[in-house]
Amino acid sequence: MIREFFSPVIARFMLLALLLCGFSFNAHSQTTSVEPTPLTKATPATNDEKAEKIIRRAIEAHGGQNFLAVRSLIGRGFFTTYDAQGVSGVPLQFIDYFVFPDRERTEFRGAGNRVIQTNVGNEGWLYDGANKSLKDMKPEQVEDFRLALRTSLDNLLRGWWRKEGAKLSYLGRREAGVGRRNEAVRLTYPDNFTVDFEFDARSGLAAKTFYQRANQEGEPMAEEDRYARHLTVSGVTVPFVIDHYRAGLQSSRISYDSLEFNSTIPDSLFTRPANAKAVK
Fold this sequence. Notes:
The chain is of the alpha+beta class and 280 residues long. It has helices at 10-21, 48-61, 65-68, 139-150, 153-158, and strands at residues 72-81, 92-99, 103-110, 113-120, 123-128, 133-136, 167-175, 181-188, 194-200, 206-214, 220-233, 236-246, 249-261. 17% of the residues lie in helices and 41% in strands.
C-alpha cells in the first residue's frame, strides 16, 4: 500500500486492476490541482514538539505497542475504480502480502485473469496472466512504490522518515465537517517533497493524507487518501476503507474484508520466478 494497511499504493492498484480489465492507465493523466482544506489557525511550521505529540497520540489510538509490534500483514478485499463522472467500476478481488519495511506482493483476480506485482526495495516484477508474461518492473513503477512508502502512514508513525532526513512540523487544525477538526502535521523531505497527514482531533485516528505529484505536463496534481471504517483486529485499529482522490475527484476505493498481522509470509512469495510458467 496493505501497503494498504497504512501504506496505500493506489497507483499500483490502478495499474493491476486495469490490466485485469484490459485497459491501459496513466497515473499522471489529470491536469488540475487542488489544495488541502485551509488551516483554521496559522501555526509556525517549526513547532516540532507539537507534531511529535500528535504522532504519539495517533500511535496509541491505533493500538500502541500492539501497533508497533506489527511486522507483516496479509490483507484481503476488493478494489474499485471510479470514472470522471463518479461511476464505479466492477470491484476486483485482491490479496496483499506486506513485510515491513519494503517487501510487498499484491495479487488481483478478476475477469478470468490473474495479475501479480511484487516489490522488494528498489526492484520488482510484474506477472500478467492474460498474456502469460513476466517482466521486471519499469523504473517509473519502482518510483511509484518508493513514493507510496514516503507518503504512507506507516512511514510517519513508525519513524522511517527519520532515516531520510525528513523534517516534521505542526500545521494546525483543519476543518473536517460540522463540529469536527483534524490535527495536521507535515513531513518535508530534503528534496522539498512534502506530505500532509491529518488525524481526528478527538480520537487521534488517521483521517487523511495529502501530497502533490507532477502530471505529464509537469504541473502539480493533488493526491489524497481518506480513511474510514476503523476497526480493531488483534489490538490494532486500522481503516478498512481507503478512498483515493485525484484533483478532487474520487478515483478508487480499497475495501478490506480481513487483515492478518504477523502471520508467517514465506520469502519465496517475493522471489522473481524463472519464467511465467513458474509463477505460483
